[in-house]
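User: Please write out a complete single-protein record containing the residue sequence and its fold in token form, without commentary.

AI:
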Amino acid sequence: MCNLYRMTKGKDEVAGWFEAIDALGGANFGEEVFPGYPGVVVAEGKVQQMNWGFPLVMKGKQGQPLKPKPVNNARTDKLDSFFWRSSFEKRRCLIPVTAWAEAEGPKGGKTRTWLSLPDSDLFAVAGVWRQSDEWGAVYSMVMTDAKGPAAEVHTRMPVLLAQSDHSAWTLGSPEEALGLCRSWPGELFLDRTDQAWSGGSGQKRLL
């Protein structure tokens, strides 16, 4: 499960790499993205700003509405559920990433372990998106079973897409897209750090 990732490239480089139109304008982004915060997404052929996480509307014990929580990861085996189905069938996107992080270590002392591709400093993670009443345009990462080095740090990992599969993910049929929801078959670089796992909204959910 991914609750933190890096995107260190400028919008011009992202637009060129994905052959997309820059629709960001003057928007600025932090290099680290946490659930509930804005990130860069390539959707409908455009590099856009969206918030990371579909809003999950909660209610208190007395039935009162609570602040929505961002559901930032979508499990591959749940894409046909009510929560994800429409977005998966109609609104798939590409999420530019340079590395993603997992937490390792004891409770209260977890540190960041970063995973990336050894032969590319920018790659695409499969995503879905939609418009929401709460936060406007939102997106979520698609997750699958972890294998290789990724399995050392978590049971799940983002669906990474080869550049040749970008069009199939965004424009193909749901059946074609589902066929891409598999563990990354290539090499992964794993970087265990002593950097404390902290920051972000603290609201991390997966459906």
Summary: Helices lie at 11-17, 85-90, 166-171, 174-179. The domain at 5-56+65-199 is CATH 3.90.1680.10 (hypothetical protein yedk fold).
